[in-house]
Design goal:
The protein is an alpha/beta fold. It has helices at 31-35, 46-49, 54-63, 76-79, 88-95, 121-130, 154-162, 203-217, 253-265; strands at residues 5-10, 41-44, 69-73, 106-112, 134-135, 138-139, 142-145, 166-170, 185-190, 240-245. An eight-stranded parallel beta barrel has the order 1-2-3-4-7-8-9-10. It has a two-stranded antiparallel sheet with strand order 5-6. The model has no long low-confidence stretch (mean pLDDT 97).
Length: 267
């Protein structure tokens, strides 16, 4: 069995993509329509900075093809606080803001913590307890993006597994590297796109990420990544995988995503 591997970028409104990724003359209002037919997922960053309109989520769902999935960044007002256990009102407001209008196209919610946020096991577990597993009968997937090295412990990994919450794996050196699988899906944010590479990433790097994605999707773990904690006790037969090209030289992000998709389609 093989899970679904989705590959995309962060957002879709970025002027340098016009004339490079987007065809010359394409109306801005059609950029999501275009992007969603060349990629299989997009991470929405705007939800991190503020609430979006309910009708916007409904429109985004309508403009994208069947099988397309959006990941959402959880609001910064939820995670940028001293005590995460006090975030319940903010979490409730977020899910009441219209995100469920995405319906079947609602993918994982990424809760990003500041680099200054340290690992406090009791407070972090209290936060995990606040994250809803289902809303109105729809399963909600959660993933956390931590940026302080103190999270790179087996205790953190074990907590995530207990609550079936994913952890972001990044290739950026400044952030902790936690390749352990902690949920029924895997979430990757790649941030090394280079201006000097035609597709943003060297061919060998794209080959490597394709091989890793295939391993995760088949319920395995890449042998070249050293985990922080012990392996899963009962690995699933398959997993869904979400991979986003985010930062680095951002104008090359769509090219990197499409180059990876080509490798996956030929695998």
């Amino acid at each position: 069995m093989t899970g679904t591997i989705r590959v995309g970028i962060g957002g879709w409104t970025f002027p340098p993509w016009r004339g490079i990724f987007y065809p010359e003359g394409l109306a801005q209002k059609r950029e999501l329509e275009y992007a969603s037919r060349h990629l299989t997922s997009i991470e929405i960053n705007g939800t991190y900075y503020g609430s979006q309109k309910p009708e916007s989520f409904a429109r985004w769902r309508e403009e994208t093809p069947e099988g397309f999935v959006f990941a959402l960044k959880g609001p910064r007002f939820t995670t940028n606080r001293r005590i995460l256990a006090e975030a319940e009102p903010s979490i409730e407001r977020f899910f009441a803001s219209g995100v469920l209008n995405l319906q079947e196209k609602l993918g994982p919610v990424n809760w990003q913590l500041l680099p200054t946020k340290r690992f406090d096991p009791a407070d972090f577990e209290a936060f995990l307890k606040l994250l809803p597993k289902t809303i109105e009968g729809r399963k909600i997937l959660h993933v956390v993006e931590v940026r302080h090295e103190g999270f790179r412990t087996a205790e953190f990994v074990d907590l995530l597994r207990a609550y079936e919450t994913g952890v972001v794996l990044t290739d950026r050196d400044a952030f902790p590297h936690i390749p352990d699988v902690t949920s029924p899906f895997v979430y990757i944010r790649l941030q090394r796109s280079s201006e000097g590479e035609e597709c943003g990433y060297p061919a060998a790097a794209l080959d490597l990420w394709a091989a890793r994605a295939f391993a995760w999707s088949r319920g395995n773990v890449p042998k070249d990544l050293e985990p922080v904690a012990s392996p899963e006790k009962k690995p699933p037969k398959s997993r869904n995988v979400f991979i986003y090209f985010i930062n680095g030289f951002k104008p090359k992000a769509p090219a990197a995503a499409m180059a990876l998709m080509e490798r996956l389609s030929n695998g």
